Each structure stands twice: as C-alpha cells, then as structure tokens.
Amino acid sequence: MAVTDEAIEKIKGMIVSGALGPGDRLPKESELAAELGLSRNSLREAVRALSLIRILDVRQGDGTYVTSLDPQLLLEALSFVVDFHRDDTVLEFLAVRRILEPAATAMAALRIEESRLDALSAQLDALGDAPSVEELVACDLEFHRGIVQSSGNSVLCSLLDGLSGPTTRARVWRGLTQEDAVSRTLHEHRAIVAALRDRDAEAARSWATVHVASVEQWLRSTL
C-alpha cells in the first residue's frame, strides 16, 4: 500500500506542477514507470485508484488521460462516499447543507435570471397543492439545484449535489411521517422564490436556512 501511495503522490505531483494538464495523455506505462522510479505494478495500481476518483481516464486500446479535472467530475466521489453514511450521521450532513445552501441561495439572489425564476414558479405551480411525497422530493432536488447553479459557483453546486443522498432520505422520511411537511415545504419554496425575485439576498438566505433547519429539527426529534 505504501508503494502505491508513493505512486499516487508522484502522478499527483506531475498534475499539480503542470507537467500533465487536463486532457493530456500519460506516457506509456513502461516509460512513466522508469521516469518516476516505480514498478509497473505499483504504477498500475495508482492509475486504477486515480481513475476511480475521476483524476485519470483509462481508455482501453487508447491510453490513459488526465480528465478535465472539472469540480463536478471530481466531487462525484463525494456522493459515493455519502451513500455509506450511518443514520446517526445524517444530521451532520444536514448541518453542512444548512451552512452551504443558504450562502448559495443568497449568492443566487444577485445573479439568477428572470427566466430561471419563472421556471421555478412554474415547477411549483405544476405540483399543485397536494403532490405525492415522491413528486415533492424530486421537485425539491431540482428546485434547489436550479437555485444553486445560479450562484455561479460550480464547486458549491457540486458539493451540495454530493450531499443530496442522505438529505433526500431525510425529506422522504419527513414526508411520510409528518402531516404538514408537504404544505410547509411548498410554502418555504414559494417564499424562497419571492425573496429571489426581490433580489433580497438576506431574505433568501433566511428562508433557505429555515427550510433546511426544519428538516434537521424534525429528524433530530425522531432519531
């Protein structure tokens, strides 16, 4: 394992230093192993590990390439890790979301386009007053993703996407066990849209905080 770690660090060093950039093809295995002073075995293991976390892209019959290193691509691994959470850590993920999402919503208030706001309102209107829990959760994911994308920060968007696994489950549980969860969620969504239309960053931040905190508070009382 130590040898593989060394190989990973050496490849990482080449990327960080700029010797290899996004989209670049790695030298042939034998050449790269000799250049880095590694065995071909340890190099192969390092490449396999780095491909799993989307740093490298192994193309059969073509070679190994550095990926685009786009934040959204690199943070895909976060959602994979998050899926292995224990029930008692859901609150910790929600706490992180409570920190990040209101900030992203406040940023969006200054940048979001009217066409996006119209789409969000239409999405809520299409749900009606009594959607199923499944419909509400699907809408909730798209609703918040649309707002966070308007923040203009791709890293923030990717982080919040990665955190959606356990928080989605929490929303489902809430919808199944709390009678007013659906109407409360719809009310909070409409309040967020209204604040965004007013370009009121602090109101948007406050309503987003209330929205996430209400799920967190409910879940804390049930665990």
Descriptive report:
This is FadR/GntR family transcriptional regulator. Keywords: DNA-binding, Transcription, Transcription regulation. InterPro entries: GntR_C, TF_FadR/GntR_C, Tscrpt_reg_HTH_GntR, WH-like_DNA-bd_sf, WH_DNA-bd_sf. It comes from Streptomyces argenteolus. Residues 1-69 form the HTH gntR-type domain. The mean pLDDT is 88. This protein is 72% helix and 4% strand. It is mainly α. It has 12 helices and 2 strands, in the order H-H-H-E-E-H-H-H-H-H-H-H-H-H. Helix 7 runs antiparallel to helix 11 (181-197) and helix 8 (133-149) packs antiparallel against helix 10 (164-177). It has a two-stranded antiparallel sheet with strand order 1-2. It has helices at 2-17, 29-36, 40-52, 71-74, 76-82, 90-109, 114-127, 133-149, 154-162, 164-177, 181-197, 201-222, and strands spanning 56-59, 63-66. Strand 1 and strand 2 form a beta hairpin.
How large is the radius of gyration?
22 Å
Average pLDDT reading:
88
The biggest sheet amounts to:
2 strands, antiparallel
Coarse structural class: mainly alpha
Number of helices: 12
Order of adjacent strands in the largest pleated sheet: 1-2
Listing every helix as H and every strand as E from the N terminus to the C terminus, the arrangement reads HHHEEHHHHHHHHH
Poorly predicted parts? none
Shape field: elongated
- How far apart the termini lie comes to 38 Å
State which percent range the strand residues make up: under 5%
> Helix proportion of residues, in percent?
over 70%
Number of strands: 2
InterPro entries: GntR_C, TF_FadR/GntR_C, Tscrpt_reg_HTH_GntR, WH-like_DNA-bd_sf, WH_DNA-bd_sf
Protein name: FadR/GntR family transcriptional regulator
Domain HTH gntR-type: 1-69
Keywords: DNA-binding, Transcription, Transcription regulation
